[in-house]
Write a structure and sequence with these properties.
Rossmann fold, alpha/beta, about 20% strand, eight-stranded mixed beta sheet, about 325 residues
């Protein structure tokens, strides 16, 4: 078993293979986006020849993640989409796209003509990478529980005139088993309308058929003898599936990173206090930082030594002795 609360400089699959079965509670991560950035390592993910090959590689990674998760573990994965190329299969991000990750909103290439083909895609087609991944993971055995919309109030501008500017990405919630750890109470949001407590009484008249003015007889299987209901209202409501979170900058890295605010509820709901959060694509360390801030342990892997250095600086700066 690897040491807890450490970011390991290694390719993610190699790191995951060093973890014991059922040794982590939750995984919160954002894989490298397709065709965006070259990390200068032949084992990196994101520069595959086709989107299909990219998805296949991610499925392999998350298969290992499923192995190391406890039976009640969850996976929260943020991933962005891309467009098929407009010039012999090659398309471009905006000029400053290489300074972003979650800030990117268009194109399918970073710095080279990587997208040679995409099965079924025409030039300018939205590839649908997030859903390709979601369906592939479901087919591989994961329970696909929810698509969460990350709505960005400050998206990167686009000069497009034939579609809307993209201002959202997906976070998929997947689970290893049919039932799993999920603390819905701890991430409840403020209710729109709040009434401390109201008890409502309804006359015992049974239920009526649609467009039928007659009261149901007691012999009808749809009849309910007691229709009295007690209603309790509080100032909290179940967390909704659209999360409005601004993109965040990282001074040390000089590009937009996984915002801390975006994954706070993933960690609070998906991992018990004192549990272990895994991030196989740690980047500049947002998941480890948030995990420690909220009383969870972490294990993380990152292939880029530069990113690990930045992550460790962030940990020292934001958490000090609690790193």
């Amino acid at each position: 078993m690897l040491e807890l609360n450490k970011i390991y400089t290694t390719e993610c699959c190699a790191g995951l293979k060093q973890l014991a079965d059922k040794s982590v509670n939750c995984c919160v991560t954002s894989p490298p986006y397709y065709g965006l950035r070259d990390y200068g390592n032949p084992l990196q993910i994101g520069l595959e020849e086709t989107p299909e090959a990219y998805i296949e590689k991610l499925v392999e990674v998350f298969r290992e993640v499923r192995r190391v998760l406890t039976d009640d573990g969850t996976l929260w994965v943020n991933i962005g989409d891309s467009y098929a190329g407009s010039m012999k299969g090659a398309a471009g991000y905006p000029d400053n796209a290489m300074n972003y990750k979650q800030g990117t909103n268009r194109g399918s290439l970073g710095k080279a003509t990587l997208v040679k083909q995409c099965t079924g895609c025409k030039p300018k087609d939205l590839i649908g990478i997030p859903w390709m991944l979601a369906f592939a993971l479901r087919a591989d055995g994961w329970y696909l529980r929810q698509d969460i919309i990350w709505s960005k109030p400050n998206p990167m501008p686009e000069s497009v005139k034939d579609r809307c500017t993209r201002s959202h990405e997906y976070i998929f919630l997947l689970s290893k088993s049919k039932t799993y750890y999920y603390d819905f109470e701890v991430i409840k949001q403020e209710a729109v309308t709040s009434v401390k407590k109201r008890v409502g009484k309804v006359e015992n008249v049974g239920y009526k058929h649609f467009n039928d003015t007659n009261v149901l007889s007691e012999s009808d299987p749809m009849f309910r003898k007691n229709t009295t209901r007690d209603y309790t209202y509080t100032d909290k409501a179940n967390k909704r599936s659209v999360w409005v979170v601004p993109t965040a900058a990282c001074k040390e890295a000089h590009f937009a990173v996984f915002p801390e605010e975006l994954i706070v509820d993933c960690i609070k709901a998906g991992c018990p206090e004192g549990g272990v959060v895994l991030d196989p694509f740690a980047g500049t360390g947002t998941t480890p930082v948030v995990a420690r801030k909220f009383g969870r342990n972490y294990i993380a892997f990152e292939i880029s030594p530069m990113s690990v250095g930045i992550a460790n600086m962030r940990m020292d700066k934001e958490l000090g002795m609690f790193k």
